[in-house]
Amino acid sequence: MINRVEKLSLLSEMIAFAKYDKDIKHIEYNFLLGVAKQLEISREDFDYLIEHPINYIHLKSHSERIVQFHRLVLLMNIENQADNNSKGVIKLYNFGLRMGLSHESITKVLYLMESFPNKIVPPDVLIDIFKTQYN
Q1: Helix (H), strand (E), coil (C) string for the chain
Q2: Given a cut of 90, is residue 36 above it in pLDDT?
Q3: pLDDT score recorded for residue 80
Q4: Mean pLDDT, rounded, for 83-104
Q5: Average pLDDT in the 7-18 region?
Q6: Whole domain around residue 94: which residue ranges?
Q7: Whether the Cβ atoms of residue 71 and residue 28 lie closer than 8 Å to each other
Q8: 47 CA to centre of own chain
Q9: What is the mean pLDDT of residues 13-25?
Q10: How much is the average pLDDT of 101-108?
């Protein structure tokens, strides 16, 4: 399991991702708050992270990095932004690379995303993509 500093780093990373278009929209805020609760981060700490991001900490666990990438995919598609999607896809791709995920897997997820309702890749499909590339 990941420790508190890693959890704060994950959440800070997601906040930075949501801010790529300058503002965190209400729906994104609620989604991020839900992730914070899931990670057992208080609302006060979450709100503090919005204004005071912390440095990225690379997760050692490959499976934790896949889960984080899936959260980012969900966050990107939460508003179903058709206009700004190319910026979001590029940002998502770069975040995935920074996490140490294979570019082939990231590319495949982004390609397959178009074929799913609301562009949300189911967790089992996403895991299979990364598992295939990891082996």
Answers
A1: CCCHHHHHHHHHHHHHHHHHHCCCCHHHHHHHHHHHHHCCCCHHHHHHHHHCCCCCCCCCCHHHHHHHHHHHHHHHHCCCCCCCHHHHHHHHHHHHHHCCCCHHHHHHHHHHHCCCHHHCCCHHHHHHHHHHHHC
A2: yes
A3: 57
A4: 83
A5: 91
A6: 4-134
A7: no
A8: 18
A9: 85
A10: 91
Phi/psi-derived region of residue 80, left when phi > 0, alpha when psi is between -120 and 50, beta in every other case: left
Residue 17's closest CA among 2, 37, 31, 1? 31
Q: What is the mean pLDDT of residues 84-88?
A: 69
Nearest alpha-carbon partner for 127 in 81, 79, 68, 83 = 68
Tokens, residue 123: 């967790």
| Structure tokens, 70 | 């899936």
| Location of structure tokens 């993509």 | 129
- With a cut of 60, say whether residue 118 has pLDDT above it: yes
Give the total number of structural domains in the chain: 1
Q: State which amino acid sits at residue 47.
A: D
DSSP per-residue codes, 43-79: HHHHHHHHHS-------S-HHHHHHHHHHHHHHHHTT
